[in-house]
Design brief:
Elements lengths: L1 H30 L10 H4 E2 L3 E4 L4 E5 L6 E5 L6 E3 L4 E2 L6 E2 L4 E5 L3 E2 L1 H31 L4 H15 L3 H16 L3 H27 L2 H9 L4 H31 L11 H12 L2 H33 L1
Antiparallel strand pairs: 1-9, 2-8, 3-4, 3-7, 4-5, 6-8
Helix pairs in contact: 3-4, 3-6, 3-9, 4-6, 5-6, 6-8, 7-8, 8-10, 9-10
């Protein structure tokens, strides 16, 4: 009973702090001389405006007897264009048309540029995440190798990557390596993010392996397992389970770091937000929306990792 009372008390404290923060944000927005125009941002997230259908040539409109079919007949002998899917008709039977004239509209629901940028960010992050796990695993194992050359090469790579800014690495990959290998923007951006994140993943995995008691490897070897089999079947599963929270943090950072690829004109969420700001002149609304979408992506990843941790703990 006492524990339940304390739980209610601290939950109330939590809600009070959240309400105070919300009130502070609201007071801050009211204290600045700025007129909020959220309605300007919505069409750039989900576009509900009708899609225009325009005449591809000069000609004449012929409306079917049922009123649901429109035929555009060309004056220059082009094949007639038959339209049977439209929401609003803007011409009448027998009207003369010129190329580019709007003849009908279709009600539609389309993703706006901000959502397109979010999809690009998700694609870039997913590719980089998978590749960085594979590369980081190899580097982490190489970091612990008994071979001095392999171990020192892995250490050199990790120190160079972690010791230089990601923005500089993106420029080098795109303008230098990308020029030599003819890489497109997406490939160059994913490569830079992969190489950068893999260095941190390698150190996380290395620490996870070293956190596994040495007796686990010795016990596996005493049962007749080879070193590779013992590492794959005994040590690595335990190391990855221990490293999962740190890996989750790195993957969340990867999603946020992907915003830097906008400097090479890759239209991710950040660049899409910058373009929308120049079109709407609503910087606060756009950047709050972009921040919220990044929060949705990182929170979703954090939730998935927590579920994975719970499942692994239950399996253990």
């Amino acid at each position: 009973m006492q524990a339940a009372k304390h739980r209610w008390l601290w939950n109330g404290v939590f809600m009070g702090v959240v309400l105070m923060l919300a009130g502070g944000i609201y007071w801050s927005t009211q204290s600045i001389d700025y007129h909020w125009r959220w309605e300007r941002v919505l069409p750039y997230i989900v576009d509900t405006s009708p899609e225009s259908i325009r005449a591809p040539f000069d000609g004449q409109a012929e409306l079917g007897d049922d009123g649901r079919t429109l035929t555009l007949v060309s004056d220059h002998g082009d094949a007639p264009l038959v339209l049977d899917k439209f929401s609003t008709l803007l011409v009448a039977d027998g009207d003369l048309l010129f190329e580019g004239d709007e003849v009908a509209r279709i009600d539609s629901l389309r993703a706006g540029p901000i959502l397109h940028g979010m999809v690009m960010t998700l694609q870039l992050s997913l590719v980089s995440l998978l590749c960085s796990v594979l590369l980081g695993l190899g580097l982490g194992l190489g970091r612990l190798s008994a071979n001095p050359a392999l171990r020192k090469l892995c250490i050199l790579y990790i120190e160079i990557i972690r010791g230089t800014p990601l923005l500089v690495q993106i420029f080098i990959i795109y303008f230098f390596v990308g020029t030599v290998l003819s890489l497109d923007r997406f490939t160059a951006g994913a490569t830079a993010l992969t190489l950068f994140s893999a260095a941190y993943v390698a150190e996380i995995i290395r620490a996870g392996i070293q956190a596994v008691p040495v007796g686990q490897m010795e016990a596996a070897r005493s049962l007749g397992m080879s070193y590779v089999r013992a590492m794959v079947e005994v040590v690595l599963p335990q190391a990855l389970r221990r490293s999962l929270p740190a890996l989750a943090g790195q993957f969340i950072n990867l999603i946020k770091d992907s915003s830097l690829v906008s400097v090479i004109s890759l239209t991710d969420l950040t660049k899409a937000g910058r373009e929308v700001v120049s079109s709407t002149f609503a910087p606060f609304e756009v950047w709050f929306t972009v921040a919220l979408l990044y929060l949705v992506m990182t929170a979703s990843l954090s939730w998935l990792v927590q579920r994975l941790e719970q499942r692994l703990a239950a399996g253990h």
